[in-house]
Design brief:
alpha+beta, 8-stranded mixed β-sheet, globular, single chain, FAD/NAD(P)-binding domain, FAD, 620 residues, disordered N terminus, 19% strand, 17 helices, 7-stranded mixed β-sheet, Flavocytochrome C3, Chain A, domain 1
């Protein structure tokens, strides 16, 4: 046996981007943790590992119903029209038209096998419940590597969960239910410990990434929430993964071979008795005459299976981010700043629609998790169809300017804030400007979480590095590939760079002069940027690129209470119906609090386990 620390190409799956679009060669798994001096650069000087393939997959389509005839109008859908003002969710089919070829009884039905569904299925099975989990794909999703939780037994830094609760509420401007957030704040550590115990037999060792630098990012407090796992694999497993990577030239090929936490939790779920059914798309909920959810219909072949769930149905089908048309309809501003799709195929909002059909309601304020690292060419439009490519440097707090060359915000902010500011600028665009000293400046910025490029010095209890950080070789490959694609521009003067970026040369020149003047003073008199991030642009060559957002996932799902029960339009729980993960809402509004590293992942597993505990009568 040997300990396998997730290397750069494997660990970065925590941020949801397809690695085949980033790393061109098998050697990417062995990128060195070092910085290299940067002098006069050309495009090929960045391309040490080859050219990165630019790609942005878009996923669309709708799940066909089991009925041979068109869906019929029902009162349930009509009564919820006031929820959004538009019937974007359509209408449910009349169950009498379904061709039900089989009926299956269970106690708990879990719809979807992403992070929430995996956790719910395992938790219910461990408690001895008769649980069935259905998934429309041929395989399951994952529990991402960044798991944001509080108060685990391995934590070496204590934080006040109620302080974090209130800060989280501030991100949502109060448009949330703090009781829902409180479940994450007070139960997430125990949930993580439960998962750690469950998968320990597979050689998974938990770690705590506690480095938050000075504890602030601009004016924003940062909390140590990031957790993950190191894994122990056999020589045979590792050799098989290495062979797959070498044969395909795709580092992502190892992902389907080397298991991680989600794979192990599903193994435990099956060991505990869970019935997992793939290629069984969820279609619609079943209800009795009183509105109680009694089960669900799922498609199988040309017909339907009716799953009767005596204790409850848990919706864990994800958000609607993989449907670009629906994203544009429900969140047009966020859709307009997208540059690369990092969505998980199949997340098209079917669980949210079904919850509304059952009498529930969706969050009114849309929320897209999006990071500013989708680089686009100077003449490219943002929005769907996406034209960008991943370039990690976009999240760094370098000078950002609009098409007039004007600086418009404090660049030290959460990932999505500069993107939101950009939405008010011409062409929805802001460009980042950096110079040849960018590596040293990135070290000084010391960003954390998914934006971290300089590798973390944190080690686990056994002295093994956490592996947090992209690495500079990987960052340079991304920049080089973007230069080769005509996206990142390079010039010896600011005026020349402005012309290549289609930015007003006089405006950019004046802005850089002002920026350097403020850097020399050590005080940002214009936007209040911290002195440690206010670093001059004075070492040519200069570089620039426009950045849109990674379209990751939506967070405005069905409104729920503190037990994850879906609420109806009167704000009362719908009996028998629960929602977890991105299918659920009540916790975010407008922005994702990325400085709570791994928060979405942590709340998903916590809420999924809590929903099962409520079904079991362990919490009331």
């Amino acid at each position: 046996m040997r300990v396998y620390v997730p290397s750069v190409f494997f660990a970065r799956t925590r941020c949801g981007w397809p690695l085949r679009d980033v790393f061109p060669a098998p050697c990417a798994a062995r990128l060195e943790r070092r910085r290299e001096p940067m002098g006069n650069l050309d495009r090929r000087s960045f391309l040490k590992g080859g050219v990165v393939a630019a790609g942005a997959a878009a996923f669309a389509g709708a799940l066909s119903a089991c009925a041979p005839s068109a869906p019929q109008e029902t009162g349930a859908a009509d009564e919820t029209l006031a929820t959004t003002g538009e019937a974007w969710y359509g209408s449910p089919a009349d169950p009498a038209t379904f061709d039900v070829v089989d009926t299956v009884d269970c106690e708990v039905l879990v719809c979807g096998l992403g992070a929430g569904g995996i956790t719910a299925a395992a938790a219910a099975a461990e408690k001895g419940m008769n649980v069935i989990a259905i998934e429309k794909g041929a395989g399951h999703g994952s529990i991402k590597s960044d798991i944001g939780v509080i108060g685990t037994r391995i934590d070496t830094v204590e934080v006040d969960p109620l302080q974090m609760l209130n800060e989280h509420t501030r991100y949502a401007n109060g448009w949330c239910d703090p009781r829902v957030t409180r479940v994450w704040a007070t139960e997430s550590g125990v949930t993580f410990d439960w998962i750690s115990d469950s998968i320990a037999e597979f050689g998974a060792t938990p770690y705590f990434e506690y480095d938050v630098d000075e504890g602030t990012h601009g004016v924003w407090p940062v909390y140590p929430t990031d957790h993950g796992f190191h894994y122990t694999y056999t020589e045979e497993e590792q050799a098989k993964a290495d062979a797959a990577v070498a044969e395909s030239g795709d580092p992502a090929a190892a992902q389907g071979i080397l298991p991680q936490v989600g794979d192990y939790m599903l193994k435990k779920a099956e060991e505990w008795g869970a019935d997992l059914r793939y290629e069984t798309p969820f279609v619609q909920l079943a209800q009795d005459e009183n509105g109680k959810v009694t089960g669900a219909y799922a498609k199988i072949g040309d017909g339907c299976v009716l799953f009767n769930a005596s204790k409850g149905v848990i919706l864990a089908t994800g958000g609607y981010e993989a449907n670009p048309d629906l994203l544009a309809e429900l969140n047009p501003d966020a859709a307009a700043i997208g540059g690369v799709s990092m969505t998980q195929a199949g997340c098209e909002g079917e669980g949210i629609k079904a919850g509304i059909w059952a009498g529930g309601m969706k969050d009114e304020i849309p929320t897209l998790m999006t990071f500013a690292r989708a680089a686009v060419a100077p003449d490219a439009e943002l929005g769907y169809p996406y034209q960008g490519m991943t370039c990690w440097i976009g999240d760094q707090p370098f000078l950002k300017v609009n098409l007039d060359g004007a600086r418009v915000c404090c660049e030290t902010a959460p990932y999505d804030y500069p993107l939101h500011v950009a939405a008010l600028q011409p062409e929805y665009k802001l460009a980042s400007i950096w110079d040849s000293d960018y590596q040293n400046q990135i070290v000084a910025f010391h960003t954390i979480g998914c934006s971290r490029i300089n590798m973390s010095d944190t080690v686990d209890a056994a002295g093994v590095p956490t592996g947090e950080g992209l690495s500079f070789p990987a960052c340079d490959m991304m920049i080089g590939a973007a230069m080769e694609a005509g996206i990142v521009q390079q010039a010896d003067t600011i005026e020349e760079l402005a012309e290549k970026l289609r930015v007003d040369p006089a405006g950019l020149t004046a802005t850089v002069e002002r920026y350097n003047e403020l850097a020399a003073k050590g005080v940002d008199e214009d936007f209040g940027k911290p002195a440690k991030d206010l670093l001059p642009l004075s070492k040519p060559p200069y570089f620039g690129a426009f950045f849109g957002g990674h379209v990751l996932c939506t967070l405005d799902g069905l409104r729920i209470d503190e037990h994850m029960r879906v609420l109806n339009t009167e704000r009362k729980p719908i009996e028998g119906l629960y929602a977890v993960g991105n299918c659920s809402g009540s916790m975010y509004a407008g922005s994702y609090p990325e400085l709570f590293i791994g928060n979405a992942n942590g709340r998903t597993i916590t809420h999924a386990r809590h929903a099962v505990m409520h079904i079991a009568g362990e919490v009331k």
